Amino acid sequence: MDEKASLGTDAPAPPRRRGRPPTLDRARIITAGVEMTLPAVTFAGMAKQLGVTQAALYKHVDGLGELRTLIAEQIFLDWSIPDPHAALPIHEYLLDFALSIRLLAHHHPGITPFLTRRTDTTATMVAKIGAHHHRVAAVYGLDPATARTLLSGIAFAAVALADTVYASYGQEKRPSSARADLPDDDIETELRWTVKALVVGSLHVAGLDVDPGPRWRRT
User: How many CA atoms within 13 Å lie on the side-chain side of 214?
Assistant: First the structure.
């Protein structure tokens, strides 16, 4: 027998993968983007993450700006805003709200501009914000304008504060992943007292002076 024939000159063909590849659509692109985090999103990186060409991505989004906007919108829509209820005093609710939105900014680097700049906020995000304002107004007997002023101001300040405080925390170890942990107790303590002062001051400016009680006084 010929030596070449006995050894086999042709390598066996790799087995064919069964089934169709996953369909590329906006939902799949957005999910991948949320996992990558906004600062890490690029067209080349997204294409590699999904195993497609950049040309394939352009069939679903117009460019990097739209891609990041879609991702930020999904992050915001996935956020569960604390639900107000009459049994919870308004200052306690506003504290819960502020601390919740600060976690949103902390867990999702790059989301802050979409929460603080009106030009970057999508119509879908505005609709969710408006519904929340009306809900708070109804629960606490506020007129819609007062609720909007209170919540928008507190959200803006809390997000900006959180983005500053958490800006570099943990990024040396996790440069392209969402920040999951909170910094040490000292930072958290100072942040909470600052947010409490923000809430009381915002209520005062809105003409809603409340006495939050001794728990809110720093001695």
Answer: 1
Provide the token pair at 78.
């996935």
Cα separation of 137 and 189, whole Å? 29
Q: Is 130 helix (H, G, I), strand (E, B) or coil?
A: helix
- 72 contacts: CB under 8 Å, gap ≥ 6: 38, 110, 111, 114, 120
The single-letter code of the amino acid at 183 is P
Q: For residues 147 and 134, is the Cβ–Cβ distance under 8 A?
A: yes
Distance CA 147, CA 166 (A): 28
Nearest-angstrom CA–CA distance, 34 and 99? 21
pLDDT, one tens digit per residue, over 107-155 is 999 999 999 998 999 999 999 999 999 999 999 999 999 999 999 999 9
Contact (CB, 8 A) for 60 and 25: yes
